[in-house]
Amino acid sequence: MKSTPSLLALLGLVAFAGYQNRSKISEMIDDARRARPGDSTTPQPGFLSGISDLFRSGPNGGGTLSSGLSDLVGRFTSAGHNGTAQSWVASGPNEHLKSDDITHAIGDETLNELVAKTGLPRAELIRRLTAAVPEVVNKLTPDGRLPTDDEALKLL
Q: In terms of residue numbers, what domain contains 151?
Protein backbone atom coordinates (compact mmCIF):
# COMPACT_ATOMS: atom_id res chain seq x y z
CA MET A 1 0.00 0.00 0.00
CA LYS A 2 1.40 3.39 -1.06
CA SER A 3 2.02 5.84 1.77
CA THR A 4 0.86 9.42 1.77
CA PRO A 5 3.54 12.08 2.29
CA SER A 6 1.91 13.11 5.57
CA LEU A 7 2.02 9.55 6.92
CA LEU A 8 5.67 9.17 5.93
CA ALA A 9 6.55 12.49 7.52
CA LEU A 10 4.72 11.65 10.74
CA LEU A 11 6.30 8.20 11.03
CA GLY A 12 9.69 9.59 10.13
CA LEU A 13 9.45 12.19 12.85
CA VAL A 14 8.33 9.60 15.37
CA ALA A 15 11.16 7.26 14.47
CA PHE A 16 13.83 9.89 14.02
CA ALA A 17 13.22 12.16 16.97
CA GLY A 18 10.37 10.75 19.01
CA TYR A 19 7.69 12.64 20.86
CA GLN A 20 10.05 13.51 23.72
CA ASN A 21 11.87 15.86 21.32
CA ARG A 22 8.72 17.61 20.07
CA SER A 23 9.97 21.09 20.96
CA LYS A 24 13.01 20.62 18.74
CA ILE A 25 10.80 19.17 16.01
CA SER A 26 8.51 22.19 16.28
CA GLU A 27 11.52 24.51 15.90
CA MET A 28 12.71 22.61 12.83
CA ILE A 29 9.24 22.80 11.32
CA ASP A 30 9.03 26.54 11.95
CA ASP A 31 12.48 27.02 10.41
CA ALA A 32 11.53 24.92 7.36
CA ARG A 33 8.30 26.85 6.87
CA ARG A 34 10.11 30.23 7.05
CA ALA A 35 13.16 29.29 5.00
CA ARG A 36 13.49 30.61 1.47
CA PRO A 37 15.58 29.00 -1.27
CA GLY A 38 19.07 30.47 -1.24
CA ASP A 39 18.93 31.53 2.43
CA SER A 40 21.64 30.20 4.66
CA THR A 41 18.82 28.94 6.90
CA THR A 42 17.35 26.73 4.17
CA PRO A 43 17.44 23.16 5.49
CA GLN A 44 20.08 20.91 3.98
CA PRO A 45 19.02 18.00 1.75
CA GLY A 46 17.92 14.94 3.64
CA PHE A 47 14.95 13.64 5.55
CA LEU A 48 14.30 16.67 7.73
CA SER A 49 14.59 19.12 4.84
CA GLY A 50 11.19 17.94 3.58
CA ILE A 51 9.49 18.49 6.91
CA SER A 52 7.44 21.45 5.69
CA ASP A 53 5.55 19.08 3.36
CA LEU A 54 3.82 17.76 6.44
CA PHE A 55 2.02 21.06 6.87
CA ARG A 56 1.06 21.88 3.30
CA SER A 57 -2.49 21.06 2.37
CA GLY A 58 -4.56 21.47 -0.72
CA PRO A 59 -4.41 19.87 -4.15
CA ASN A 60 -0.67 20.46 -4.62
CA GLY A 61 0.39 20.04 -1.01
CA GLY A 62 1.90 17.02 0.63
CA GLY A 63 -0.74 16.60 3.31
CA THR A 64 -1.27 17.60 6.91
CA LEU A 65 -0.40 16.36 10.34
CA SER A 66 -3.99 15.38 11.04
CA SER A 67 -4.27 13.42 7.77
CA GLY A 68 -1.03 11.60 8.59
CA LEU A 69 -2.43 10.73 12.00
CA SER A 70 -5.69 9.57 10.42
CA ASP A 71 -3.76 7.43 7.91
CA LEU A 72 -1.73 5.90 10.72
CA VAL A 73 -4.78 4.96 12.80
CA GLY A 74 -6.46 3.69 9.61
CA ARG A 75 -3.52 1.43 8.82
CA PHE A 76 -3.75 -0.22 12.23
CA THR A 77 -7.53 -0.53 11.94
CA SER A 78 -7.25 -2.16 8.49
CA ALA A 79 -4.58 -4.54 9.80
CA GLY A 80 -6.95 -5.88 12.46
CA HIS A 81 -5.69 -3.73 15.34
CA ASN A 82 -8.70 -1.44 15.67
CA GLY A 83 -9.01 -1.92 19.43
CA THR A 84 -5.34 -1.17 19.92
CA ALA A 85 -5.43 1.97 17.76
CA GLN A 86 -8.61 3.20 19.44
CA SER A 87 -7.00 2.75 22.87
CA TRP A 88 -4.38 5.33 21.85
CA VAL A 89 -7.05 7.83 20.75
CA ALA A 90 -9.43 7.31 23.66
CA SER A 91 -8.70 8.28 27.24
CA GLY A 92 -7.44 5.45 29.39
CA PRO A 93 -4.51 3.08 29.13
CA ASN A 94 -2.79 2.57 25.77
CA GLU A 95 -2.41 -0.93 24.40
CA HIS A 96 1.19 -1.76 23.54
CA LEU A 97 2.54 -2.92 20.21
CA LYS A 98 4.81 -5.72 19.13
CA SER A 99 7.28 -5.23 16.30
CA ASP A 100 5.23 -7.61 14.14
CA ASP A 101 2.20 -5.30 14.62
CA ILE A 102 4.17 -2.34 13.22
CA THR A 103 5.48 -4.36 10.29
CA HIS A 104 2.04 -5.71 9.43
CA ALA A 105 0.16 -2.42 9.78
CA ILE A 106 2.66 -0.07 8.15
CA GLY A 107 3.90 -2.47 5.50
CA ASP A 108 7.26 -3.23 3.94
CA GLU A 109 7.03 -0.52 1.27
CA THR A 110 6.55 2.25 3.85
CA LEU A 111 9.18 0.80 6.19
CA ASN A 112 11.70 0.56 3.34
CA GLU A 113 11.01 4.17 2.36
CA LEU A 114 11.45 5.28 5.98
CA VAL A 115 14.72 3.38 6.25
CA ALA A 116 15.97 5.15 3.13
CA LYS A 117 14.81 8.60 4.29
CA THR A 118 15.88 8.42 7.94
CA GLY A 119 19.08 6.41 7.52
CA LEU A 120 18.06 4.24 10.48
CA PRO A 121 18.60 0.48 10.26
CA ARG A 122 15.29 -1.36 9.78
CA ALA A 123 15.39 -3.10 13.17
CA GLU A 124 16.09 0.21 14.96
CA LEU A 125 13.32 1.96 13.02
CA ILE A 126 10.80 -0.73 13.98
CA ARG A 127 11.97 -0.66 17.62
CA ARG A 128 11.52 3.10 17.80
CA LEU A 129 8.11 3.03 16.12
CA THR A 130 6.91 0.20 18.37
CA ALA A 131 7.82 2.23 21.45
CA ALA A 132 6.69 5.67 20.25
CA VAL A 133 3.58 5.27 18.08
CA PRO A 134 1.12 4.61 20.96
CA GLU A 135 2.46 7.60 22.94
CA VAL A 136 2.48 9.95 19.95
CA VAL A 137 -1.07 9.08 18.87
CA ASN A 138 -2.22 9.42 22.49
CA LYS A 139 -0.58 12.85 22.88
CA LEU A 140 -1.98 14.09 19.55
CA THR A 141 -5.54 13.04 20.45
CA PRO A 142 -6.10 14.60 23.90
CA ASP A 143 -9.84 15.01 23.32
CA GLY A 144 -10.38 11.34 22.46
CA ARG A 145 -10.67 12.04 18.72
CA LEU A 146 -8.44 12.84 15.78
CA PRO A 147 -7.60 16.55 15.80
CA THR A 148 -8.26 19.11 13.09
CA ASP A 149 -5.22 20.56 11.32
CA ASP A 150 -5.19 23.66 13.55
CA GLU A 151 -5.57 21.58 16.72
CA ALA A 152 -2.76 19.25 15.66
CA LEU A 153 -0.35 22.12 15.06
CA LYS A 154 -0.97 23.44 18.57
CA LEU A 155 -0.13 20.05 20.05
CA LEU A 156 3.44 19.99 18.71
A: 5-155
HSE at residue 151, side-chain half, CA atoms within 13 A, is 13
pLDDT tens digits along 41-52 = 444 444 444 444
The tally of domains found in the chain comes to: 1
Closest to 95 (Cα-Cα) out of 82, 104, 106, 110: 82
For the domain that residue 132 is a member of, what is the CATH number?
Answer: 1.10.10.690
Q: Which of 152, 128, 138, 153 is nearest to 16 (CA)?
A: 128
The answer to whether residue 84 scores a pLDDT higher than 60 is yes
State yes or no: pLDDT of 70 exceeds 70: yes
Q: Which of 53, 76, 56, 80 is nearest to 133 (CA)?
A: 76
